[in-house]
Amino acid sequence: MVSTTFGLAVAQPAAKKAAVRSGIKMTEAQVIAFSEGAARLDDLQRIAQEAITKLAQDARAAGLTPLPQYGLEIDLPQTMDGSTMVAWEARVPVVNEVPQGGNAGGVKVKALEPTKVAYTFHQGGFEGAELTLQLLIGYIMQNGQLPGQKIAFVAQTDPQTTKVEDLILELRVAVQAG
User: Fold this and answer.
1) How far apart are CA 120 and CA 170, in angstroms?
2) How many distinct structural domains can be found in the chain?
3) pLDDT tens profile 32-66
4) d(Cα 100, Cα 113) in Å, to the nearest integer?
5) 80: number of CA atoms within 13 Å, CB side?
């Protein structure tokens, strides 16, 4: 596991500086409830909150037991322009096994295999995470790796009860050998 600390701008109006832990790690295998869609980057914060809230409620109603660290995975956009459309997948980890057919009461469920990712942390919502993401991709390439095609935003604080500016997100980008 490679790990380092570097300073990056935290996405807030005051543009505070923070030293955060970053590195390359393997994610753990987990079972998730998920839903999918597409949205403009400008709408991602609203869409994520709505989709994750609905997914967690639907998972509970279907008899699943959600765990913390809800997340959203998006396709790596070619540009960070707000009008860019990206596919997204809302994710809610659950303690349950994947049901027969991958469906529990109308909720899609699947298993995720461990994945090698570069990671760092970001304070605030999706808007403003561009600089953090650019620094993370630079970090990947400095370590002789290539970024994958997906970005995962994993909430370290409850997105349903935390104000957007106070959210702590772990940004993860899959890495490939360079």
Assistant:
1) 6
2) 1
3) 999 999 999 889 888 988 999 999 999 999 999 99
4) 18
5) 10
